[in-house]
Amino acid sequence: MPLVEIPGRAAGGDTGAAIARGVDVAVSLTNARANQLDPRRFTQIACALAAELGLGVRVTDAVQLAEEGFGGIIAIGSGSSHPPSLVELWLPGEGPLGEEPPHGAIALAGKGITFDSGGLSLKDPSAMYSMHTDCAGAATVLGALVALAELGCTVPVYAALPLAENMPGPEAIRPGDVVTMRSGVGLEIIDTDFEGRVVLADAVALLSESQPQAVITMATLTYQAVVALGPEIAALLGRDAALTQRLLDAADRADEALWPLPWADRYIAQIRSNAPGAVYRNHPRADTGRALTAALLLGEFLDPGIPFAHVDFAGPAVRMQDGGPVATGYGVRTLVELVTSWPASVDDR
């Protein structure tokens, strides 16, 4: 398998250089083709960067994922010969680097689908061509962690990267199957091409266990976000007004276009399932509002008292050029701005 080139440290070590390296990491991973970057290789790169930068890291392989109840990640990765994995990374802030992620951190999750064929709900070939970029969420979160580590960030950050390849192999999950998620809740997989929210649901359930100050998910999740906002503006769906505003302010300072869509509880029935053993379903059975129902579904897998926001950046993650899709590194600057401007005390939040 060809190696993916990951940019080294830039000379000078200043803020601009640190952010530039983080963006370059995100771009390099998102641009890598599926035969250059599978879940195993992504995991290796994340671990190498963690070792270089002094980040905490923990890898959960496919066997452990099954043992520890990550039914969503296992389901989406089950059709591929490249097994899924979950990579956790953390910055302790001003505390010591421990063997466990810090409690009370800012928590980030990024969708890491290294190739999305749609699984048994197979995509049209023309739609499949650019699907090596479906790991942009995980690449962005990893790039942000790189930049924050380079900057000596004093705010604790905890990230979870669910990594899988969504393929229609003989063990692939079938439409209509019910899986038990990390939270212990049953999820009906109506459409295997709605896979990003499934792996992210397991990731946010894990993050929720550490009682973080906030959870933010990053994903190239729905085409309807592009329909609503065009190719250059990402959608922000937040169920906490203060966190939503912090993200909007951070994106403004980072000069990355981000626009709020509503947290639409009125559509919650669209993600409920009546399948045996299931509480939720991964498809709303509706042609409209799918960016909204995707965010609602994710919100059901973490403690309702934890501030939560979801960024759907299917549009600005890549630019379509004559030679094909080219990653932009969107989101790294916004996440760095968000974390580095986070208030120091509970009273300030």
Describe the structure.
The structure is a single chain. The chain has 349 residues and is of the alpha/beta class. The protein has one domain: Aminopeptidase (3-Layer(aba) Sandwich). 34% of the residues lie in helices and 20% in strands. It contains eleven helices and 14 strands. The protein has helices spanning 15-31, 39-53, 62-67, 71-77, 125-128, 136-150, 196-208, 223-229, 241-254, 290-299, 332-340; strands at residues 56-60, 85-91, 106-110, 112-116, 157-166, 177-180, 186-189, 214-219, 234-238, 258-260, 280-281, 308-312, 318-321, 324-327. Strands 1, 2, 3, 4, 5, 8, 9, 10 and 12 form a nine-stranded mixed beta sheet that branches. It has a three-stranded mixed beta sheet with strand order 6-7-11, with helices on one face. A two-stranded antiparallel sheet has the order 13-14. The mean pLDDT is 95.
Helix-and-strand structural type: alpha/beta
The total of helices stands at 11
Name the average pLDDT: 95
Give the amount of beta strand, in percent.
Answer: 15-25%
The CATH superfamily turns out to be Zn peptidases
CATH topology: Aminopeptidase
Give the overall form.
globular
What series of H and E elements makes up the topology? HHEHHEEEHHEEEHEHEHEEHEEEH
